[in-house]
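Lab notebook, bench 4. We co-purified these components, and the gel suggests they stay together. Before we commit to crystallization screens, I want a quick structural picture of the whole thing.
Request: model the full complex, all chains together.
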Amino acid sequence: MTWLGSPKFPDAARAALADTQLRRNLRNATTTIRGRRAEAVDELPDWEELRRAGEAIKEQVLHHLDTYLEQLEAAVTRRGGTVHWARDAAEANAVVRDLVGDAEEVVKVKSMTTAEIGLNEALAAAGVHAVETDLAELIVQLGDDRPSHILVPAIHRNRAEIREIFRAAGLEAESDDPRVLAEAARAHLRRKFLSCDVAISGANFAVADTGSVVVLESEGNGRMCLTLPRRLITVMGIEKVVPTWQDLEVFLQLLPRSSTAERMNPYTSVWTGVTPGDGPQEFHLVLLDNGRTATLADPEGRQALRCIRCSACLNVCPVYERTGGRSYGSVYPGPIGAIITPQLVDDPRDEQAASLPFASSLCGACFEVCPVRIDIPEVLTHLRAEVVRARGRDAESVAMAAAAWVFASPRRYAAAQKLGSLARFLARDGRLSRLPGPGAAWTSSRDAPVPAREPFREWWRKNRG
Amino acid sequence: MEKVALFATCLTDTLYPDTARAAVRLLERLGCSVDFPLGQTCCGQMHFNTGYRRHAVDLAGRFQQVFAGYDAVVAPSGSCAAMVRDVHPRLGAGTPRTFELSEFLVDVLGVTEVGAYFPHRVTYHPTCHSLRMLGVGEKPLALLRAVRGLDLVELPAATECCGFGGTFAIKNADTSTAMLADKMRHVLDTGAEVLTAGDNSCLMHIGGGLSRLRAGVRPVHLAEILASTEEEPWTPASR
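Here is the predicted assembly.
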């Protein structure tokens, strides 16, 4: 879930902020996609209704998750597939490892869920090499790197860096022209598609009443994965189920415009069980919990499970834009990661996960773009309260209690204003450039306001009261 | 005549009394009868946003008591108005009719021309909570456009957060500073003499950065611009 040994967000962010190349790559990429998304969304006069429909369908699913999952299982089984249930990462990895059998190499279509459970690492430990076939995911894998974006895992890399990564991995590219780079990857991947017998995928959606599983991608490599190998193993978070094809239609509109700013997704692959003589002859669906039912039990936090992994919130987030995805120390970066990761980790004493709900200025841009209307700022403040509760008494909680005590009485408040105005004597040239204590973090980059000689209430009492 | 209670907000009351005085002058000029209930303190936003819900609940309850008897509450702050209107009900506190200043002027009083005179080049930063939680939209801009003598210049990437975010500026000081740097660059690119907004918290943050740079751009709250007239022009004071 979180990458072992990742520093807390503020520390990871400090390192990322110092990387000017990273910041430039990110700013260029997010600014472009942000503008394109806004245009694609503006084309639809009923976008707000679509968002509300997406929200309503997902809420319906979350309230009756058990029913829909059982429907899904029955439908998949009826069509010749096999369903496996996994409580956590270890169980899911064990199931997949068994299903892979004696294959030494498997192809994968990019999947957040398998990254969440660390499947590639688990397979490697069993002597199985998992080949990522999504171009960006391949770049990350070949560079022995970590993904930094939900949709564009290699968003932090520019094409010169990519050419270097390819060269080091033995993929020849004559220049850093994107076309040349893509061709080098294609040649590499074709060999893998034709030689691998087993494929592993994630799923964007699964339709309960027909047992159909859906993957959306842009390159067609995913479709090769889903159709060429003999055995297909799909690992899916239990919240990805939707009731019917009619519901699916809403998300097929919401997802592409939100994520890639496209009117329609280039490759939408849907498969239902197995079809003799065509496509995979064996299909396994692994349904993963891994903290999801615990999240479901939290009435304020569970809306995070509506997420369809479009990454629109990352692309508009001013914090993400500057710190990059890896600062979040988790496969789920950005605003959505800041609310999903701590809930799936479900341990408020895990310091790294506990730092994530604070990695936001609560500007609300994420909520504004979310296609399923997840009120991310609301969940952030909810999770902050959980962190504070778990932390117990410390310097901050004492200061906050003292402030609340002062604010509880206008008399104490007026007295505190008087005391505060003593800070006037620290000012030089009408500026306060160095504050003691926690104020020092403020004056590291900003002058502090010099308190007024006379607070407003004092003036009101004298002149108008 | 509208009977309104001014909720000054703790930040403005303590650090920027000029803004509150300007709000009173402006509202009275427009025919309102203004009261400042002395029992008011803070809306609890800092506690709520930092994770101290119990304290926030107490402060929301206290706010409710203090302002219960008024027709309307006006605050010179989008974020505090949003806290009262959007969050207090979630904390179990009912909410008196609460408005951010520009909303009150345009929606309740129905004016955009408030008789102001402010002969300076001004750029406007739409603060996040005004923009997204309250949805004040074009109202502040409409008010500014009607100010005589005022040269309004557009702020690039205006809707992007300045990086303040309350305790975010302390807890994630480096990220906050990086966001501030970009915001300051955009402000300086406009060539404006004055940066205005509907929130003193954001102005404190951006203004604190500009002051450190000795940039010479002055942060002035929207209320102070709208209160300024030829007879009683705005003068730089406490900032």
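The two ends of chain A are 59 Å apart (CA to CA). Worth comparing against the SEC data before the next meeting. The longest strand of chain A covers residues 231-237.
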